[in-house]
Amino acid sequence: MHPSASLVLLAAPAGISTQVLQVLGALLLLTAFATVAARHINGAIGIYAIQSFALAMVAVVVGYFTGSSDLYIVAVLTVIVKCGAIAWILRNVTNRLHLQREARPYLTIPVSLLICALLTLLAFFTSPAVVAPGTFLNEPPLAISIAMVLIGLFLLSSRRHAVIQVIGLLTIENGLFSGAIAIAYGMPLIVEFGILFDILIAVIVMSLLVTLIQRELITADTANLQRLKG
Amino acid sequence: MTLTFLLLIPLLVSGICLIAPGRRWMEIVTVTGTVLILVLAGFAARQVMLTGHVGELASWLYADALSIVTLLVIAFVSFTAALYSVGYLREDMREQDVTRGEGLHHVKRYYVLFNLFVFSMLVVPVSDSLGVLWIAIEGTTLASLFLVSFNRTREALEAAWKYVIVGSVGIALALFGTILAYYSAVQVLGASYDLNWSVLAPVAATLNPNIMRLAVAARPHHSIRQCEPVCRLHLSHCPDRSDPASYIGRREVSSCFSNCLWC
Hints:
The structure holds 2 protein chains of 2 kinds. Chain A is mainly alpha-helical.
């Protein structure tokens, strides 16, 4: 498709598509908060699956109004890999860890949610500065993607359970993916394939590692990984 | 075809190690493979000196002077590491039976992953696509993860977990940088162009300087594996002195090079 045509489309998207995108963006942000609030690991995994589904829907909507068929393929793959395979693998690992299925945060959940709200504010506050004036970028999608990255980082640093840390990492990645789709209509198809494949391998490898850690330490609590310090 | 063979060798060696009957075999093919890689890297260096750059496989692979420097370093380090592994692993597993069962499996895992690790490292400097480059960097983390946790002791597992988390977060930020670089290029070149260095470099001066600056900043400087792409981005970004975008590039090239030397 002609480049200038796509830019015009993004500058003045059809009303209904914008609204759907806004709803999906809100859903993405909401699910990121929900993973922080989740008390049980299986709950967090389920929320991650919903988040990935919302991401796939974003790809479908953007694909619909830019007329790019690549994004439909990306959406289908996202559902298969993230909602299907990754959620299944993580659930399997969690079920194998007989003990400790609760999230065990370093901070209490209300405090965590408050911090995440501040992070979201920060994202909405800074993202207009990222975009140079005169570009056709819609600000809210980028702000939401940055907020998801920040919430993912927070999850990663404030939780002790290894599986929740993996979910934090996946939240960061979902945020980046949604950003890529919203601001650049997704990456070239072959790159998207590679990234999804990489993530799948990463989750498999980390699950193996969590299983090994649990066998050795009888826990998947990363607070016990304290011996190596600089 | 130098670059193509260069990448095929470690893959092939990794495959041979997977089906090899004994430790001796794995040692011989791994060391031979890294010697061949070093020789081929030398050939590629000669080609680049003669022609300026090498492009292969329908422009999936691309090497210029900067990639050759990195390539030679990687090839040399892989070679010495392969030599060292032979003695190290023999000493490490002196009390185990490595001819069959668990012992053989252990040695096999080491050599298969070692060669996959070499492969993913070699892809990084010679890939033309920023996307493939990102995938290869992530690949190095995943391939080396079980080399870090090789001994399966408590400390090794702890180190592996910290390594994968820190590495993955760094790489996620690099993905952000890649996406922003793509976004700034989409504004100039239009949607769904190939995310390639050879496409980016000619239009470097017209890319949005603010976004490119952020894209570069998002790539963590303090990791040896990520220095090279950052350098290339800087270099491709400053072809013209009068342009503000290239000014930013030039100022950061020096800091980038000092970073690389520090690495």
